[in-house]
Amino acid sequence: MSKQGESQIGMVAALVRSSFLVNAVYAESGREHGLTPQQGQLLCVLMAQPYGMTELGSMLGLAKSSLTGLVDRTERNGFAGASRTRRTRVRCGWR
In 1-95, which residue ranges form alpha helices assigned H by DSSP? Predict the structure, then answer.
């Protein structure tokens, strides 16, 4: 294998290790606040601005029923809220 090939494999391995470390820190900090990783991801998206449920579903890659359950659980824990508007029917934002 060439030095360039070895260098690329070394870079990939370093990125994979870094990804695992970041995910572990992310999961641990979420657990400290009673959040699942999915709830944390939802809240990170909502930090920028409120979104409609269709937009959220598209951004998070979730079906409507899965997103509704996620928002309901996150809202029940007091981290997010959903409100009705004329334009989007349901809008979800950070509390």
Answer: 3-32, 37-46, 53-60, 64-76
* CA 38, chain centre distance (Å): 5
At residue 80, the 3 state secondary structure works out as: strand
Q: DSSP 3-state assignment of 13?
A: helix
**Count of C-beta atoms within a 10 Å radius of residue 6:** 10
Rounded CA-CA distance 69/75 in Å is 10
Supply φ then ψ for residue 62, to 5 degrees: -115, 145
Q: Give residue-wise pLDDT tens across range 37-82.
A: 899 999 989 888 888 888 999 999 999 999 999 998 988 888 887 7
pTM (predicted TM-score): 0.71
